[in-house]
Amino acid sequence: MFLGQTTFFAVTITIVVAINAMCGFVQGGGTGVAGSLPKRYMGYNVNGMALGGILASAAQILSLVGNTKPADSAFFYFTTATVFLCITFVFFRLTLRSELYHYYMSKQTSMIRKRDQPKENIPKVSNWEIFRQIWVYALSIVFVFWVTLAVLPAVVVLVVSTSTEHTIWTGRLFLPVACFLLFNAADFVSRLVAFRIPIPSRFKYITLLLTMLRFVFLPLLMLCNAHPRSHLPVIFDSDVDFIVITVFFALTGGYLCTIVLTQGPKQVREEHHEAAGSQLALFLGVGLMLGSVSSYGLVVLL
């Protein structure tokens, strides 16, 4: 029995690693491709990230309401994630073969060939030169996802309802609805708003400042009714307080994420948009890593 459990655990971890590797490949490639297209396509790309969170939250709520067995829920989640990931990869490959993609790629190529120099003598722009032009947005995307992943889900999953009534809302549905569904819905709405009312690139330092100010949400969420805790007091002892903080947390994160990913690639010459988008995707991953590592320390500080 022990050997069977060990084998199952090893296979599961292997699948998780494979899924995340494929997800990183698709996300990085998709962001790079979207960066080479007009700005609205990057908006569609980031909106899809938020929509995926809404679908996941809805699936969790349906599973809880339907009293689905944990084994059945796990199988459903992994199967759904794998299917959607494969579908995304297929459509990504189709995008690379589409007329739209080839039009903008050929446009970038023609811009290079129109230079007076022979093609073989065209000076290549290094990744460092591209980074120097987008470093403000690269740092901003790190801060956005660092803050988000530092408390979500590690800290917020510890928050419990302060209501004394024992209902399905205060029990199983409190976090899935009050946190995850509302977070993803607010995140999605803020991305739509950012697409319509963006921060102009000439105010990019304001964007960076706003991403840094989001660090204030770390103590705010840690001071909510999260348990177990040994060091910090509970200041926001109301469910409404937690919901309001979570909604503003999501609104700022989604808005700034969209601003960074749509404005960042446009800071370089058109022929380097794809490279800039790929670099932003790389720094997005750095933010995710820093947030995941920081989450352990924040839980200990509770």
UniProtKB/TrEMBL annotation:
* Localisation per UniProt entry: Membrane
Query: Which superkingdom, per the lineage?
Result: Eukaryota
Q: Which GO terms describe its molecular function?
A: nucleoside transmembrane transporter activity
State whether keyword Protease applies.
no
- Pfam short name (any one): Nucleoside_tran
Keyword Transport attributed: yes
The text of the family note is: Belongs to the SLC29A/ENT transporter (TC 2.A.57) family.
- Mind telling me what this protein is named? Equilibrative nucleoside transporter 1
Tell me which species this is from.
Araneus ventricosus
